[in-house]
Task: inverse folding
């Protein structure tokens, strides 16, 4: 209990009304926000890593920054599917949603299960969470196969007509990150992006065109070529070692 009280006191000491006003302009709920910057929250969280009880207290407080910190100090191995469902219902801002998925949910054994479940939900931030999970897994997962990511692409197409700002941006994010994962998925995601870019639906068309712009951009292309070069260098080294 003392750790929790100390953390809240420190967060309050860093309160910044100007930051709160800026958060509101970016569509973040500020009803219980102090305006504490993310680097400060991350620095504070390092002292309390893998503390399940503290994470629950921080989340239950309802304070914006405390909830973000909860996603950093929670132990993924102690998180249950029921806890994930309870927390996702509490999402009231895109940043809490994204931080929770990136810092915590993607690391749990339930990551794929909840991704498939949440993308079909009606609530703005629950549905967003499903697509943010896709994006985070595409960036970070070392175990999910290409086949699984290919299964996400028809789901992206299915939900690409959702006009809600925080949903469509998450759908777009998922598509772009899948495309940047490797050469095989790049081709599949680009094909999907081209299809959406020619859609009659305005939202789907925006998602597709924006994804095409990034995936056909110089940075993405060089990244794919770079992976080929690294693979070629690795295979050449193996041939030398085995000769």
Result:
């Amino acid at each position: 209990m003392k750790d929790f009280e100390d953390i809240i006191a420190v967060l309050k000491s860093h309160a910044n009304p100007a930051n709160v006003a800026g958060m509101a302009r970016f569509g973040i709920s500020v009803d219980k926000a102090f305006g504490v910057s993310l680097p400060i929250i991350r620095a504070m969280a390092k002292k309390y890593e893998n503390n399940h009880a503290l994470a629950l207290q921080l989340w239950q407080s309802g304070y914006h920054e405390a909830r973000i910190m909860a996603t950093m100090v929670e132990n993924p191995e102690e998180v249950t599917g029921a806890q994930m469902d309870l927390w996702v219902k509490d999402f009231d801002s895109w940043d809490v949603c994204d931080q929770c998925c990136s810092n915590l949910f993607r690391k749990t054994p339930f990551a794929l299960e909840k991704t498939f479940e949440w993308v079909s939900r009606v609530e703005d931030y629950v549905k967003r969470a499903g697509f943010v999970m896709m994006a985070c897994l595409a960036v970070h997962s070392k175990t999910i196969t290409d086949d699984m990511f290919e299964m996400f692409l028809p789901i992206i197409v299915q939900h690409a007509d959702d006009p809600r700002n925080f949903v469509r941006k998450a759908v777009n994010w998922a598509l772009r990150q899948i495309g940047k994962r490797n050469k095989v998925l790049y081709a599949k995601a680009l094909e999907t992006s081209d299809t959406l870019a020619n859609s009659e639906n305005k939202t789907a068309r925006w998602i597709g065109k924006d994804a095409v712009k990034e995936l056909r951009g110089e940075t993405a292309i060089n990244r794919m070529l770079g992976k080929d070069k690294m693979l070629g260098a690795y295979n050449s080294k193996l041939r030398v070692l085995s000769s």
Summary: The radius of gyration is 20 Å.
